[in-house]
Amino acid sequence: MIRKGDNVIVTTGKEKGKIAKVIAIFPRESSALLEKLNKVKRHQKPTAKLRQGGIVEKEAPIHVSKMMLYCSKCSKGVRVGSKVIDGGKKVRFCRKCQEVFA
Question: 2 pLDDT exceeds 90?
């Protein structure tokens, strides 16, 4: 249950242990784009949008199974539950400390 704008911690791979914000989610591939992580270099031809061609560095998606939602209160990656609070609103919460995620 990772959403755009969440803070996550990467659990495996070359970026293991790093905390980042989710920029975009790709449900079809079950992956997410993380801010300033998993940088790759791509050769870019000059276009109308990008006048200068060359080697461009950009973020590549990471599979969601390789990340966990980060709880700032617990200071680590946590499992997430969902519950309905007063007023009928469904929210996500940390299974360890019961902290509700916005």
Answer: yes
